[in-house]
Amino acid sequence: MGQKIKDKEAYQKVVTAFMRQQKGATVADIVAKTALPLNTVRELVPQAADEYSGRLEVTESGEILYSFPRGFISKYRGFKASLNRFLEKFGKALKIFSVGAFKVWIMVMLVGYFALFMLIALASLMLSVAASSSSRSDNRSSSRGGGGLFFASGIFNMIIRIWFYSELTKSIDRSYGYGRGSSQPRPKGRPLYKAIFSFVFGDGDPNADWISREKQGVIAYIQANAGVISLPEFMALTGKESTEAEEGITGYCAEFGGLPEATDDGTVVYRFDELLLRADKKSRSFAGFSAPLKRLLSFSSNKQKMNGWFSVINGANLAFGSYFLFNAFTTGAITTQAQFDAASYLYKVSYLLFSSISSGDILPFITIGLGVVPLVFSLLFWLIPLLRNVNLKKANETVKLENLRKDGFHRIWEAPLSVKPAEIDPKPAECRPKNMAAARDRVIKEIGAYSVPEVALDASGEAVYSFNELEREKAALEKYRRGIDPNASGLGKVVFDSEG
């Protein structure tokens, strides 16, 4: 009988972290890899060790090294445990299938309606040619047929252009791999349903795992710096202004066993001794600030030309849907010769075609099936990307400002006695808001709310800020770290092994 796990997602993260471990790991190691709260990991690690028959090695410090020499095969083999695992896998598969089905449905709606409208247009073309050939002597009939012929010919020309010249059909180019002695593989294009979904809804949020990534960066910095961090360092790692940073570091203390302490001169630091009790002593802070940057959101990973063709196809669907809906309301059912003569060419041809297929009233089908549905779908197909693009630009400006804060706070912390706003000039596009001058001033003001600077002018008249209090705090922090014994966080030798 399997154990009951409250947070299955967190449990899976813990198990995955162990799977990636080459050697034994402590609770602190798993916290660093998963960014899960310390108490959560303490609760879940023994459960993982129990389910997968883990090896426990107790060290002199009292910390336990967990490893899984027999792999990750659950010891729970009963019907209920097997059923739970099956239902979990089935739920994941169903979710993947549902998302895939939704993407395919969008493709079917876009391409399916376009194909249907093109077939209707081609049918009208053939009827127009037949009518034109059989009634050349009748000027009115010829004129009517010629107009339909011209319209339908334009539609046919559009189909040819889309097939031969667009990005949509490159992935099904059958010329590859043919010919004598040819062994060139056919290039793999992106599936059409994924490309269409990307145009409408984008490719997902690249910062969906941001909270976890940020915590991993902060934890890595703490572990690489004697388990101690100051508020300005936390601001530089997270890009938060001082008030928000104080709330954030308090949350970290609650999650990861941190405590505020005061240095000899009264500087407040935050100490996380329990995060140092780890087997993996490798630094992941890249010899300095490991502040991860938020990624910019992109509208779509498709080529611009491909998105252009999606717009053309959707525009055709919108035009046809509007046309049929308008004529369904203005012309309605065609029951008399007078109504037939007065109706527009494509509408009456379509009415005749569908009347020959169905014996019932086809007006509702034309109104809803050829009018309302494609019209609404086409409007949404354009409206959703339009609104998304507007919000995307605003979101990217926010991302750039947050990233600039990190760079600016970092530069000021590294050299607090001589800060020139113009020197806060990161090169990555992710760190450059539209109005850099205003953004730089904002960075100075926000860190100035924590430590008031002295302002002077250099020879060129440019303002130079001196954050003397930050310099003092930095010196006190370095002295405090030097006073910490690195051996105090050592695990020591193994004194007990569950496998003898």
List descriptors:
mainly alpha, 6% strand, single chain, 500 residues, Arc Repressor Mutant, subunit A, three-stranded antiparallel beta sheet
Please provide a brief summary of the model.
The chain crosses the membrane at residues 104-127, 147-164, 308-326, 362-384. By secondary structure, the protein is mainly α.
Could you characterize what this model shows?
The protein is mainly alpha-helical and 500 residues long. Among the domains are: 101-177 and 186-201; 397-482, Arc Repressor Mutant, subunit A. The protein is built from 15 helices and 8 strands. It has helices at 8-19, 27-34, 38-51, 79-134, 139-165, 192-201, 210-224, 231-238, 242-256, 304-330, 337-342, 345-357, 363-414, 436-448, 468-482; strands at residues 55-59, 64-67, 228-229, 259-262, 268-271, 454-457, 463-466, 494-497. Strands 2-1-8 form a 3-stranded antiparallel beta sheet, with no helix packed on it. InterPro entries: At5g03900-like. Keywords: Membrane, Transmembrane, Transmembrane helix.
